[in-house]
Structures are given as structure tokens and as C-alpha cells.
Amino acid sequence: MSQSERTTREEDENAAEERYRAVVIFRNDDPEPGHRDELRRAVSELFIEHEIPITDAVIPTQDGESIEETEFCRELRQRRNEHPELVEYALHGYRHEPRASGFGRGGQTTEFAGLPYDEQRVRIAEGTRILAESLESAPRTFVPPYATYDETTVRALSDSGIDVISGSDWFTRGYFGETGVFETDGVLHVPTTHGFVRDWETIEFHDERDLRARFDDSYGSGGLYVQLLHYWTFNTKERFEQLRSFLEYIIGHDDLLYATVGEFSTLYRSGRLERVADGWLYRPSDETDPSSITSEGRRGESKKNGNKN
């Protein structure tokens, strides 16, 4: 290969690379039938309106019964069919009921931690079956209720073909000694880094200035910002408008790549998304690749918010 050919090839490769200041993920926990349905729809529409992708962590049973054949599932299927680039449905436990408390150093509530491997494997398999049949797509991301799980959960997920788990960094810090993205037993851990609720006993929110400052810190350091929300907590006009205001504040920042938990995992594992000194380097694939994020940054405005080298 001549020097000119080598230079041209390097220029082509560099042109295909895109750099982003930070990566933003939103995760919405607890969607289930009959639980503040209008509010759930309103929050979903807010994300669609702003073209921001989100991972919805869906509870597969209610009062011990499968959510299959419900209007709720029909709605979720329709939403994904209309906006496939904006929606991921994750498995949120099995019953989402506290099986035990006192797990871990802080005495946290848990559904999965401490259960034998076989029982955890059964719950994961049945929850996966329910979502696969009712939503016509098998989940690849597992969100443990109460953010708590153990090494047995990870092994059961790996053996079940689920390769992403998303808890919270306060838990992974105490149990695994990790707060960022890490991998064990073939499962990628992508914990949330921030939440709206400050006090779960009173459901008191963080001050909006505090939320913005936390985001600015992550943006300034070129980090991975994973925001947790529970749609049912935005139950007043003021709180709903706070969510809208916060989304618009984030959108006002340039050079952001938005993804679902599953999308992030695919890109990160493949090496196409890499943390670098000044943010994140993304290497797009061809348009026929189903794992390619076709509109980086805010959906539909990637060319405005993303920088290409």
C-alpha cells in the first residue's frame, strides 16, 4: 500500500468516527397494568415528543398473575412499533415484591438476592417468557427490583441468555466495589448514576438545581449519565413540569449521545463505543446493522449535536 493510499484510508476511518462529550441513558421503572395509566402514557409521550430513547423496566406479573393478554401490553407493543428507535423494554424482576430485607450492609430490601440459583433461574425464565410473548420481543436487559441482587443473580442471568443488568450505583458500590460500567460472569452491569427521588419514605424530590448540577458534573467530565425515574412519582403538575424542564435542559447541551441500556451495552461490548480522555468515541457501522444507532445525539438532530472527526 502506498503512502497516499494509506493516508486516504486513515482519513476515511477518521471521518467515520464520531465524538461525543457524554452518553445519556434514561431508565423508567415499574410500568404495569392499571397503575396510573394516564400518567404512564403522559411520561412516555414526553420522551417521544423530545425524541429521547428510554428503557422501560416492565414488571411481568401483577398479584402473581401474568400480564399477558392485557390492554397494557397492546399499548406497549404499539408504542414500540411506532417508535422502535426510542423504546426498550427490560425485565423488572418477576413479582416485584419484597422477599426479604436486611440484605447487604445497609439492610436493603430484595426480591432476588439470597435465593437459590434454581429459584432465581426459574423466575428469570418465566419473566422472560411473559415479556417475550406479550410484547413480541424477548428482553435482553434485567432490572432488579429495589436495585438489589447478588452474584447468583448474575450467574442465573448469564445462563439464561440475558447479558445486561441495570441496578443502581449505590448498590454496586457496596456489593461489588464498583460504580461505573463493569462485567462479571459475562454480564455487563450498567447501574443508574442519578435519580429524581431524594427520600423514598416521603417521595421527596431532589431540588431541580441539584439535578442540573449533577448532570453538569457528568457532562463536564465526559461521563456516562444514567438517570433513573419512576413515572408514577410525577403525580403533580409541578413535578411533571420539572421532568419536562429537566429534559429540555439536557437537550440544550451539545455533543450528547442518547441510548437505551441495551443499545449502550451492544455498542460498548463491540468496541464501537469507547470512553476516551475527552468523552466518548463512537464508530458507526453500516446502515444495515441492527445494532447501529442511526441518529446519534438527540433523535433526528444528530448532525446538530454530534461532532464528526
CATH topology: TIM Barrel
The gyration radius over C-alpha positions equals 20 Å
* Series of H and E elements: HEEHEEEHEEEHEHEHEEEEEHEHEHEEHE
Category from helices, strands and their pairing: alpha/beta
* Beta-strand residue fraction: 15-25%
Total number of beta strands? 20
Helicity, as a percent range: 25-40%
**DSSP helix count?**
10
CATH second-level architecture: Alpha-Beta Barrel
CATH class category name: Alpha Beta
Q: Based on CA inertia axes, which overall geometry fits?
A: globular
CATH superfamily placement: Glycoside hydrolase/deacetylase
Unreliable residue runs: 2-12, 294-309
Tally of structural domains: 1
Protein described:
The protein is an alpha/beta fold. The chain has a single domain, classed as TIM Barrel (Alpha-Beta Barrel). The protein is built from 10 helices and 20 strands. It has helices spanning 3-16, 37-49, 71-82, 117-135, 151-159, 169-175, 208-220, 237-251, 261-270, 302-305; strands at 18-20, 22-29, 54-58, 61-62, 65-66, 87-91, 100-103, 108-110, 141-142, 164-165, 182-184, 187-189, 194-195, 197-199, 204-205, 224-230, 256-258, 273-276, 279-282, 307-308. The strands form 6 sheets. Strands 2, 3, 6, 13, 16 and 17 form a 6-stranded parallel sheet that branches. A 4-stranded antiparallel sheet has the order 18-19-1-20. A 4-stranded mixed sheet has the order 9-10-12-11, sandwiched between helices. Strand 14 (197-199) and strand 15 (204-205) form a beta hairpin. Helix 4 (117-135) packs across helix 5. The longest helix is centred in the middle third of the chain and has 19 residues, at 117-135. It is globular, with a radius of gyration of 20 Å.
